[in-house]
Amino acid sequence: MRKSHGLVPDLRSWNRLMLEFNASGLVDQVWEVYCELLSCGVLPNVFTYNVLLHSLCKVGKLELGLELLRSVDCADSVSYNTLIWGLCRFGNVGDGFGLVSEMVKRCVDLEAFTCNILVKGYCDAGAVWYAEWVMENLASGGVRKDVVGFNTLISWYCRDGEIDRALELAGRMRMEEGIDPDIFTHNSLVHGYCAIGDFVNAKNVIRDAFVSLGSSRNGVGRLEERTESREIGYGMKPNVITYTTLIGAYCRKRGLDEGFALYEEMVLDGLMPDTVTYNSIINGLCKSGRLAEAEVLMREMKELGVDPNHVTYTTIIDSKFKTENAAEAGGLQGQMVVRGLEFDVVVCTALMDGLFKTGHPSQAEKMFCALPRLGLAPNRFTYAALIDGRCKQSDLSGAEAALKEMEDQNIDPNVVVYSSLINGYSKNGRLDEALDVMRKMISRKVFPNPFIYATLIDCFFKAGKRELALSLYKEMKLDGLDDDIYVLDAFLNEFKRHGQMDEASRLVEQASSKGLVPDHVNYTSLMDGYFRHRMDSAAKNVAQEMKDKDMKFDVVSYAVLMKGLLMGGKHEAASVYNGARDLGLAPHPDIYNTVIEAYCKEGKSEDALGVWYEMKQRGMVPNSTTCNILVGGLCEAGELQKAMDLLSEMSAFGIHPTPATHRVILHACLKYKKSELILKMHDQLARMGLELSTVVYNTLIGALCKLGMTRIAVEAFEDMKGRGFSADVATYNALINGYCKSSHLHKAVETYSKMLAGGYSPNILTFNALIGAHIRAGSVEDAVRLLDQVKERGLALSAATYDILISGLGKVGNRKDAMKLYCEMIISGFVPKTGTYNVLIGNFCKVGKMRQASELMNEMKVRGAEPSGWTYDLLVGGWCDLSNQPGCDRSVRSSCKSEAKRFFHEMEKKGLTPSEGTKSRLRFTFSKHVR
């Protein structure tokens, strides 16, 4: 149109237009204007080319920029510096340095600016030493050094912890180059010292650098005693960054009083703290549990006209969640929305993590699903929170799905992600799968730390698989990992379980002698062990030792001490509660929770309720943990209505039933064997605020299936799908178990087929149910075929799988294959159940192989499986039958009778009553009445 009217703007107008588009980020329009300029016959100048070059470098079109630079004759130092900046920005710093020789050839002036761009480029690439070499190399060619280049190097050396090298450069810049350090130089050094926790030298930097210019208060003299000679300093005053750096470092190191003192001094020096300053102090307060003070400070910053940002709110919200105050955390989230603050991925991750930890999994899942709508992509930390949350909800299939999604998006899982999965599988008793996750992470070059080994070792110990636990410990040592307090605690707990308190005490002493300092958790475990085994005097000695070593009692330590003293019956509850104050502890919900749990375990539900009422009288709001412990205790005692009344009362405090509460209540309902009661309680809990989820429905379906109410379970399954909740492997496993339990094998197989068709991968629990059902139905061949499928899918057999197969094969008389599987089971580190041993022993007894049967019982004892009355019945009866065999000579008969008598007396000592059949055999064999 301009051409048709004969109007062509001058070059200055074109350049101004290109500059404005470039400054606004409209890079494509810069190129279009340039093309229009050429089509109008206007000749560009060096300014035109430099703007165009800058726009190309901003979006990484470096090849096009290089081509443009070399095609024009008027390129100047700005042109080259722009392209060098672009190359450095996108990681091609070597190519940028290569352009220096081209500048020399074209007689383009090399400036300090050129040098500084390259120095920053190499520093950003992690080659600080090479950046320094570049600066020296260019300086030898006549390029002047300046404070910017030195500051860049000093800053990066400080970031890398090379503070001595940074100090050396700071000294050189003034003494050798005649360049005075500026405020940025000294702030970098302060930051470097603070990063390594050297506050003395950080203050020394401030003392030497900053001298008050006429201030009657002597400037920052309160930071450190000032030098008397004013000539030593550089005549500068600290700025906001100086104070904020030091305040932030003190707050991170828990030196909050020092941080506050610096904050007050900063204000007195006439400097207005900014958002970063306030955030540093608020973060320190929150980490130290001083949330109320953090909230006061946030209100104060608003009054001073400093707006809290999304980091401020995230810090407070995270602390609210940690104190289980989800309602107030939600209120702060609403304030963020009203104030128009951005929800970045850090904010969303904190909200997700908090919602999971306070029992609001569905809201946490909604937050995760909202990320794409907010234009955000989940990062490694987001997935870590999601996976950890799902694992804590026992939604392990969901956690695995999140891991797969993470890997599909090329986000590498870190040790935290794998640790959550391992912990999730371990806590749910699925140790084989936990071990598989560890092997998987190792194959991906993510190596387990002592905490992961400690988790597995502890869980294998708890499962009675001591040999596997010890082999994992050996593996950890072979990997070059040292023992830590978590590994020490795993072994202490194992000794504690078996009453081996002398070994536990020696272990603590050995750890100390090897330089591993046991912490209050390890001492608490030791004290708990002594109390459990009624060694009260030794337990009190441990408590005294903790006090002597100035080892602070936390609420768990005190709770163990309190429980031990109360359970001994030698102390009144009131005196024990008051003892908390003597140790500097105010009554805490965790202390009360421990006592409530102890009473519940002893079946003293009324005493537990008494502690609950005392909590309320002291003005302490019970938390969800208190509720779940007490509800569990009441349900165990058969007080289902009291448990529901308690839940109703808790709703008034804003504490709603969790999936764990739901599981406890429904488990209690199973005793009454009424599906209508299960459904009624499920509905009541939902009305009390229980968030429905796949996990909750799985509990409901599982409970109904345990009663054989599969038709009602299917209705619950349909209701679950109708509400938008997806089934998972646990859902199908519950239904398959239900059909197997009610002998509807064809329906179990049909459900299994639907499961496969829906894309769900069965786990070992699925196969255990189906194999057991086929064996009970006499379809041993089908059971073996299922076993082949287990191996084809690469699933590891569990202890339950072996027990089912061995018992099944034994019951149909297939002794050879049963013993083969038994040996395989032992090699795999599993200990068969007593019932499994009984089947094997019974098979030997049937064919008169009593020596083998007796050896199997001895092996059974060695492996920690306790013989039952039926075990002794089999052995006593078997030896009696063998002694009564026709043609049995006198010596053999006498030996058999002796063995029968030995096992009978052993049975009596254990308080086990022989069956009538066993008594009859003994009477016949010994021809006398046996009681």
From TrEMBL:
Entries under PANTHER family matching the protein: PENTATRICOPEPTIDE REPEAT-CONTAINING PROTEIN 3, MITOCHONDRIAL
PPR repeat feature ranges: 10-44, 45-75, 76-110, 146-181, 239-273, 274-308, 344-378, 379-413, 414-448, 449-483, 484-518, 519-553, 588-622, 623-657, 693-727, 728-762, 763-797, 798-832, 833-867
Organism: Kalanchoe fedtschenkoi (Lavender scallops)
Keywords: Repeat
Transmembrane found in the keyword field: no
InterPro entries: PPR_rpt, TPR-like_helical_dom_sf
Name by which UniProt lists this protein: Pentatricopeptide repeat-containing protein
NCBIfam families: PPR (TIGR00756)
Family statement: Belongs to the PPR family. P subfamily.
